[in-house]
Design brief:
Blueprint (H helix, E strand, L loop, with lengths): L1 H17 L12 H7 L11 H8 L2 H44 L2 E8 L7 E5 L4 E8 L20 E7 L7 E8 L9 E8 L8 E7 L2 H6 L3 H11 L2 E5 L2 E13 L4 E13 L12 E9 L3 E8 L4 H44 L4
Parallel strand pairs: 9-11, 9-12
Antiparallel strand pairs: 1-12, 2-5, 2-7, 3-6, 4-5, 6-11, 7-8, 9-10
Helix pairs in contact: 4-7
């Protein structure tokens, strides 16, 4: 009779463990509980002493649960750290892309040419007189003959009178000379000016360079053209009593929407040894030489190094990592809730004695 009661109690315990609180069959998550809670029965129907002691002693199960919880917390911390890194990477990628988009880099190329378009050399002599203007080649300038007296001119030039762009009341006179073009044969232009008297403290003649002499000739209004050039180009000077040798170089800058041409120059100054009579030395003489420095034209292009496709690819990887992290967090929360329910069920079984 006692054996029958024991077998009935064991069967009733298994039935309660197989059905959950809602009366449904046992879920896949509770199979481990059932395997751990099953108590083996001897051939005679009695419960063994060792297994009965195992039921009453749950330290092993508690230690496994504790290890699982610690491992879960550690894994959540790692995924949170990776999520923070992914967010920082996305922010850094977007910041770098916007920074490169707003700050393009310069690409410099040198293009070799046989000749340049003849530039315009605008000189502002005031009351000085142009005595001579000649073309020479291969860095050779013949000795001066009767300096201070007019000589033959073989240069193409024109005079333009206009009002200053920054002061509409001051009138200026410009002598615009067609510059050298044959850089292969080292073409140069040698000019000589004479100034009888001046009210200035220093003797100097200003000049300006612009891209093409033909632009001035083809312009419908030369005064407006010279006014725009003076507004956009730089001015230089050369002094009296010296020979100033100007070596020009052309720089073309291509921006996002427009192109700009800029002249750069190197100049060397040599003192003029005046051998004229003292009575003739009252006139101040100016000498200037213009030539191209080398046969290379410098081209500067503004390049945007920001690649939208690489940035989009990085952001896709980052957002995929964030999605995976969110999915893992969701599964982890479900697993923690499930473990909590299992723990409460085990605790409730321990509190209910087996009859």
């Amino acid at each position: 009779m006692p054996r029958t009661e024991s077998r009935s109690s064991y069967q009733q315990f298994n039935d309660d463990d197989y059905y959950d609180d809602e009366g449904n069959g046992q879920s896949q998550d509770s199979f481990d509980e059932a395997e751990e809670d099953l108590v083996p029965v001897e051939s005679g129907g009695n419960v063994t002493r060792g297994d009965n002691m195992n039921i009453n002693s749950p330290p092993m199960r508690f230690s496994k649960t504790c290890v699982k919880n610690v491992f879960t917390v550690l894994l959540i911390f790692i995924y949170l750290l990776l999520t923070a890194v992914a967010i920082f990477l996305a922010y850094q990628t977007i910041s770098d892309f916007l920074n490169k988009l707003s700050q393009p880099v310069m690409s410099v190329n040198y293009k070799e040419v046989d000749s340049f378009s003849p530039p315009g050399i605008a000189l502002f002599p005031d009351n000085a007189e142009l005595l001579s203007c000649k073309h020479h080649y291969h860095h050779y300038i013949p000795p001066l003959v009767d300096p201070g007296t007019p000589h033959e001119r073989d240069c193409e030039f024109t005079e333009v009178t206009y009002f200053e762009p920054f002061s509409a009341q001051k009138k200026k006179r410009a002598v615009v000379v067609r510059g050298p073009s044959d850089v292969k044969n080292k073409e140069l232009i040698f000019m000589q000016f004479s100034q009888n008297e001046t009210h200035e403290d220093f003797s100097a003649i200003s000049y300006m360079l612009f891209a093409k002499f033909s632009d001035l000739i083809e312009s419908a209004n030369k005064s407006d053209f010279m006014r725009d050039c003076e507004r956009n180009y730089s001015m230089w000077t050369f002094s009296g009593g010296f020979r100033t040798w100007v070596k020009m170089s052309l720089v073309k800058t291509s921006g996002r929407n427009n192109e700009a041409i800029e002249f750069r120059q190197e100049s060397g100054v040599v003192k003029f040894n005046d051998k004229r009579q003292e009575s003739e030395q009252t006139d101040q003489l100016f000498f200037v030489v213009f030539e191209w420095r080398d046969p290379y034209m410098q081209e500067i292009r503004l390049i945007v190094t920001a690649n939208p496709w690489s940035s989009v690819g990085i952001l896709c990887v980052v957002f995929m990592a964030l999605f995976k992290a969110a999915n893992f967090a969701k599964l982890t929360v479900k697993w923690i809730i499930k473990m909590r329910k299992r723990h409460l069920k085990h605790k409730a079984r321990e509190l209910n004695p087996i009859s």
